[in-house]
Design goal:
- The chain has 2 helices and 5 strands; from the N terminus they run αββββαβ.
- It is an alpha+beta fold.
- The chain has one domain (2-105): XisI-like (TATA-Binding Protein, 2-Layer Sandwich), CATH 3.30.310.110.
- β1 and β2 (40-49) form a beta hairpin.
């Protein structure tokens, strides 16, 4: 459980950092969604670009079974790489946006 608390803090801090980056177009708001009880974490952009409504998930991470599951990653650097620099072992990070059969080739956990 000690790892879960540490992972929650790492995820929240990274998402807070990313929340300061605003999209370069449209009238957008960035929302942080933290559900510590169920270990779900998201960074979402919502707003308008010209006459079109925009709503999109930039980052979505979950903690399941003492591992961080990266469900969505819209960053250039890769949130998993940033977690590794914070001290999270690669075997505790699952790139869930890859098909299960491909995960063994990522260098991260398979599930």
């Amino acid at each position: 459980m000690a790892n879960v608390a540490k992972y929650q803090t790492h995820i929240e801090n990274l998402l807070k950092e990313y929340s300061h980056y605003k999209p370069s177009y449209g009238d957008m708001e960035t929302e942080l969604v933290f559900d510590r009880e169920h270990n779900h974490y998201m960074l979402v952009n919502v707003g308008w670009h010209d006459d079109e409504r925009v709503s999109g998930c930039v980052l979505h991470l979950d903690i399941k079974g003492n591992k961080i599951w990266v469900q969505q990653d819209g960053t250039e650097e890769g949130i998993a790489n940033e977690l590794v620099t914070k001290g999270v072992p690669k075997e505790d990070i699952v790139l869930a946006y890859h098909a299960p059969y491909m995960r063994k080739h990522t260098g991260f956990a398979v599930g």
